[in-house]
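As described in the Methods, two query proteins were run sequentially through the folding procedure within a single session, without resetting any intermediate state between them. The first query and its resulting C-alpha cells are shown here.
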Amino acid sequence: MCTLEKRGSLFILTLTGDTNKDQHRLNPTLISSIRSALAEVKSQAVNGSALITLSQGRFFSNGFDLNHAQSVGVKYGSVKAAKDELVHMVDLFKGVVADYLSLPMPTVAAVTGHAAAAGLMLAMSHDYVAMISSKAVMYMSELDIGMSLPDYFMALIRGKVGSASSRRDLVLRAAKVTAEEAVGMGIVDSTHGSAEEVVAAALGVAEELGKRKWSGDAYAEIRKSLYPEVCGLLGLKCEEVMPSKL
C-alpha cells in the first residue's frame, strides 16, 4: 500500500499499486499503512529531516474508497452499514492529516496525477506541493456525489486557500483545477512537465530545507500555530519550544 525509503535524513513515502487500479483510494488498510510509515518517520527524525510523499500511476489519490464502503454494506445487507463505514474512514483519516501537520520536519507532496477529495486533502496536508502540468487535476468531488464536507476538510481549505472566490470555486463549483490554476489558488507551489521533473523538484525543495537543520520540534509547533482552526478540530495542541542554547 505504501513504502518508505530513507536517504540520509530525507524520507520518501510512496503510495504503491493497489487493488483499485493505482487510484490509491483511502480505505482503512491504506490509512493504517500511511500512519505506520509516518510513525516510523517521526521516530527516526533528526534536525534537518524532510519528507516527500509521492505515488505510482496516474493518481496521487482518488479520495475515500467508496467501493470498500459499499462492500461493507453488501456484507451486512445494510445501506446504513455502508454509510457508517464511510463515516469511519472520514474519522480515521483525521489521524493522517494530524500526523502530517504535527510531523517535526518540512513536508513536500509530489503530485504526479489526479488528487481528488480526500486525496486533495492529503496533498494539502503538506507544507509544499509540486504538481505535474499535464492533464492531472485537483478536484473536490463531494458536491457531485452528494456528500457534505467534513469539518476538518473545510478548516484545512480555509487555512490553505486564501481567496474566498477560490474556496468557493473549489467546493461550490466542484471545479476540476489544473496545475496552473492551483498555483493561482495557492494550493500548488510549482508545476513541471513530467512526473520525473515533479519528483526532482520535490526532492530539491526537501533537500534545500533540510540543509537548514531547523529544530524539528520548533518547526512542528510553528506549523500547528499557523493553522489553528484545523489543528483544534484534530485535537492538536501547541506546545512551547525554547532554544536548546540560552
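Immediately afterward, the second query was submitted; its sequence and C-alpha cells are:
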Amino acid sequence: MDRHLLFAPINRGDTPLHYAVRAGNSKMVSCLIGLANSGDGCSSTVTNLLRMMNDRKETALHDAVRTGNKHMVELLLNIDPALARFPEEGSSPLYLAILLEKSIIVQTLYDKDRYNLSYAGANGQNALHAAVLRGPGTRFAPSIFQFTKDLLERSDGLTIQRDENGSTPLHFAAARLGHWWKPSLVCSQVLNANPYALFQSDHEGLYPIHVAASVGAKGNIVKFLEKCPSSAFLCDAKGRTFLHVAVEKRQAEIVRYACRNQSLKQILNMQDSDGNTALHLAVQSGNIVIFCALLGNRQVKLSVTNGKGQTPLDTSTYKITQGLYCVQTSEENIHFALTTAGARSGAIRQDHFHELELDDEGKEIEKVKDTTQTLAIASVLIATVTFGATFALPGGYRADDHNNGGTPTLAGRYTFDAFMIANALAFISSAIATIGLMRSGSPLFKPQSRKFYLGIVFHFMETSVTCLFAAFALGVYMVLAPVAQKTALQFASSVLLLCYATKQNVG
C-alpha cells in the first residue's frame, strides 16, 4: 500500500535496505527486495533500490563490505551484477574493501565480475592507491600482493592517475620502506608496470624520488635510478634534487649513498632555486654526520655561492651562536672543518659578520646563572665522593695489632698509587671548579668576569669527571686483580672506554 517507504531515507540518508544489510539480516534483505519486485514487476525498481545512496554516497553494498559479510555481498551482486560500479564518483566498494583490509571481500568482488568493477576512490584516488597503502608490511600483504599484480595488468591508467594532491600510486609506494637496502615489493610492482609514473610530480612539484628521499627509503631510490638513471636530475618546484631533500630531512644514509655513487657526482653541486647546494643545506642544518659525508667527497665544491652571495663557509659563520655558548658545538666544528679544508668566503664583506646582533646582557647573565646552578650540584657531589674515598680505601686497613696498624692494606702497589693520584686530582679539580662557580654565580663580579670564571669551571669539571672515572676503574682493578685478573682488566677497560665515549659525545 505504501511502497515509497522502501525508498524513504531515514537517518543520514539511509534506506531500510541499508539498515538490513548493516545488521547482516539476509532474510530481511530478501524480503525488502521481494516487496520492491512485487509491485509492478519491473526489474528497474529493484535496481533503483539497490543503487540508492545515502549522504556518504554509499549504497547498501558498501555496508556489506564494511561489515565483511561475504554472503551479503554475493546476495546483492547476484541481484544486480553492476552494483559494484556505483557510485561513479567517490569511494567504490572495491576501494573501500582494500582500504579496510577485507581481503575475502576484495577477492569476492574481483571474482564476481572484474569487468563491472569501479576502481574509483575518495579524494581522487583509485583502488591502486589503496592497494599501495595496504601492501607489503601489513597483515593484508599476502592477499593484496597478487591482487595488486592483477590490478596493474588490468589497467595501466591507474598508475598515472593523480589524487587531489597530485599524488600517483608511485608517490605512495615510494614512501614505503623495504628491508635493509632493498626496495619495497609494492614499489617495484608499480614502477615495473609503468616507469613513466616516475616522471610525474604532485602539486608541490615533488617526484616519487623526492618522496623516497624524505623518508629514507634508500632501496626505492636505488631501484628508481636503476630503472631510469635520469631521474636523479629531477627537481621539484623549489629546484631541489633528491639529495637536497635528503639533507633537509636529515636522511644521512641517502646522503652517504649519493656521495659514494660515482654516477651521481653531477648532482652533488647542483643548486636549488635559492642557489644552495647540498653542502649549504648541511651547514644550515648543523648536522655533522651529513656534513662529513659531503665534505669527504672530493667532487663536492666548497666555495659555491648561493643567491645571497654566501658560500658554505659564510653560512657556517652566521650559524655560530653569539654570546655565551659551548665551543664544542656542531656549528663550531663545521666552521673549523671548512676553514681547514680551504673553503673560501663569497662576495660578502668580512666586517658584516661582526654586525650580527648579540643577545642582550640580561639574557647572557641568565645563561650564566642557570649554568652555575646546574654545575654546582655536580661539582659538590664529586668533591664529596672523592673526599669520602680517601678515608674508605679499597682493600681496607691493617689491624692495630699488626705492623703498621691502621695503614691501607694495598699500600705500595702501583695501582694503589695511581688510584690515590687520580682521586686526589678529581678532588682538587672539583674544589677549584666549586670556587669558580661561587665567583661566576656571584653578582658582585662584573658580567665579563663571571663568564671568564665559568669557562674555567668547564675545564676543571671535565678533568674532575675524567679522574673520577679513572679512580673508580683503578679501585675495582685493585680489588679484583688478585682473584680474577682478566675480569678486572676487562672491567677497568670498559669503564675507561665509557669515560672516553661520554666525553666525546658531550663534546
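Residues 447-480 form the longest helix (34 residues). We note this only descriptively and draw no conclusion about the first query from it.
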